[in-house]
UniProtKB/TrEMBL annotation:
This is Carboxylic ester hydrolase. Pfam families: COesterase. GO terms for molecular function: hydrolase activity. InterPro entries: AB_hydrolase_fold, CarbesteraseB, Carboxylesterase_B_AS, Type-B_Carboxylest/Lipase. Keywords: Hydrolase. The lineage of its organism: Bacteria, Bacillati, Actinomycetota, Actinomycetes, Kitasatosporales. Residues 423-450 are annotated as: Disordered. Belongs to the type-B carboxylesterase/lipase family. The keyword Iron does not apply. Residues 17-318 form the Carboxylesterase type B domain. It comes from Streptomyces griseoruber.
Length: 470
């Protein structure tokens, strides 16, 4: 496996310089693709800034070396195994982003922009994953930006005297950086699509529902996202237990006296004791970022933002190929339905009166190794990076390249401003949805209604015993 910092074996590398409002940034070019990695968009959240709202990074006084991935918020991964390769990179400057762009002399400029938010249950994940490499987007005339944000206690713990939803505030500031700087990289600040998967997809829906998201992006894509708010009482109970485990008061000062690594390790252990529920910390409702629940916010905000969202057919209900998978699919209250798929018609119903449109998809291709259309396996298809490290272990030796081309081209078209070629959804049973890779069909399949009816409030499920996260 090649280094994450090597975009292509045997491809000559050359330095490339961009002069942006943030300062001079020096990256690398391989072929027709330019990469600028680990650019800080905020001051490092350490010391007095650790549990504070993010502060914009000052202008670089010297050229910034953007040849390597920046530090990651994930220090101590809480999950034993992950489908996606998710490297942890040490360092304090965790609020950074990477830009992968077409060559500067590409006559298609200015390019639309895709801002990608990684998943990981708001506890883990890494923007440095090779599955998020934007080379195929650059090939297709899109600037791809991957963003890091604070996780776990540092990003989402409700602590007295600490602004809520710090992780979402980090993302909002990153979008501000994109608006102010992306033109220097060839991007169009007036055509920004925010996208993410799992917790990242949930963050997209949260930002779309937030009054603070207005004007910061123009299109939205949520892969396997959902309404992932965590009740403040439940989050405070978890933080109280965590403080007891660490022998510190559950306060800013208490947690601030410990390293991020120590806190993340304790979160992992406590989460396991409580039954592996991944949503122990996450966005909370009641501040200026999320004044109302996400579903309610979607009915009010983001009406001018087209939304594409969907889920995989099995998410966490896959397993061994064959009987177990068939039984999971037959279970009407399976986790896939209640936590992931039900969010799709609910979002469409909340946005029924929007002028922009909501389109649904369903990823149905079953990995021969994971026993179903499992959580995360759709990402290499959407990014069209079937040759990336770790894909063979998740997808097998011969994943269908024509499916990747179809899915990626649909996403590229959406980012470029085109409406999907199937009907928008309204949140009613039988809404059309593009099916990708359903067994026995062509790669693009059809657009029959595949989503379940809206699940009543309170019927959502946790993820019992889910060993793999992404």
């Amino acid at each position: 496996m090649r280094s994450l910092d090597e975009p292509g074996a045997g491809v000559p590398q050359a330095t490339v310089t961009v002069r942006a409002p943030a300062g001079t940034v020096v990256g690398r070019r391989s072929g027709r693709v330019r990469r600028f990695l680990g650019i800080p968009f905020a001051e490092a959240p350490v010391g007095a800034r650790r549990f504070a709202a993010p502060v914009p990074r000052g202008r670089f006084t010297e050229p910034f070396d953007a040849s390597r991935h920046g530090a990651t918020s994930q220090v101590a991964p809480p999950f034993e195994t992950t489908t996606i390769p998710e490297p942890s990179v040490p360092g304090d400057d965790v609020l950074n982003l990477s830009v992968v762009a077409p060559d500067a002399d590409d006559d298609r400029a200015p390019f639309p922009v895709l801002v990608w938010i990684h998943g990981g249950g708001f506890l883990a994940g890494s923007p440095a994953s090779p599955w998020y490499d934007g080379r195929a987007f650059a090939r297709d005339g899109v600037v791809c930006v991957t963003v890091g944000y604070r996780l776990g206690v540092d990003g989402f713990a409700p602590l007295d005297g600490v602004p809520a939803n710090l992780g979402l505030r980090d993302l909002l500031l990153a979008l501000d950086w994109v608006r102010e700087n992306i033109a220097a990289f060839g991007g169009d600040p007036g055509r920004v699509t925010v996208a993410g998967q799992s917790a990242g997809g949930g963050a997209v829906l949260a930002l779309l529902s937030s009054p603070l998201g207005s004007g910061r992006f123009h299109r939205a894509v949520s892969l396997s996202g959902g309404f992932f708010e965590v009740g403040e009482d439940a989050a405070r109970d978890f933080v109280l237990r965590l403080g007891e485990e660490l022998a510190v008061p559950p306060t800013r000062a208490g947690f601030g006296g410990l390293t991020v690594e120590r806190v993340q390790q304790a979160v992992s252990l406590l989460r396991s004791e409580l039954g592996d529920d991944p949503l122990v910390l996450g966005p909370v409702v009641g501040d200026d970022v999320l004044p109302v629940p996400i579903a309610d916010g979607l009915a009010v905000h983001g009406h001018d933002v087209p939304l594409l969202l969907g889920a995989t057919g099995d998410e966490f209900d896959g397993g061994a190929p064959g009987i177990r998978n068939a039984a999971a699919r037959a279970a009407g209250t399976r986790v896939t339905d209640t936590l992931f798929r039900a969010a799709c018609p609910r979002a469409a119903a909340s946005r029924r009166d929007t002028t922009a449109g909501t389109w649904l998809y369903s990823f149905e291709w079953p990995s021969p190794l994971l026993g179903g259309a499992s959580h995360c396996v759709d990402i290499p298809f959407f990014f069209d990076v079937l040759d990336a490290p770790g894909t063979a272990e998740a997808l097998g030796a011969r994943p269908p390249t024509e499916l990747a081309r179809s899915m990626h081209s649909d996403l590229v078209a959406f980012v470029h401003g085109r409406s999907p070629d199937w009907e928008p959804a309204t949140g009613r049973l039988g809404d059309p949805a593009r099916e990708y890779g359903r067994p026995g069909t062509a790669p693009t399949a059809d657009t029959t209604g595949v989503f379940d009816p809206v699940v009543p409030a309170g019927s959502g499920a946790a993820l019992p015993g889910a060993a793999e996260e992404c």
